[in-house]
Task: structure prediction
Amino acid sequence: MADPSASKPNRTVFADLLATSHAIKRALPPAYLRPTFVSKLREELNANVEHARAAFVHRKRRHDIIRWTAIGAGLAVYSLGVSVILIRMVRWGLSRMRKSSSSPGS
Result:
């Protein structure tokens, strides 16, 4: 169970920030922005969102390619190791069969 006193400092910090923001709002006059500034800012923000989305998609694709390349390389190394072990086991088995069939006691 969470300690209620642990969130008390957070509440006081948020209350202080809220009080500060209200004081700033009362002290400063309202800002009237030119419509051209607002439209230019909107276009820049939208362009940045599209750029950020494209960068995120590109990064995700690159991450996926790296991940699948690593998985493929791991599978190749695993398959090679299993193949070598199987070949050695078959050779060992064949050599044991030859030794047992060529022994003079049979």
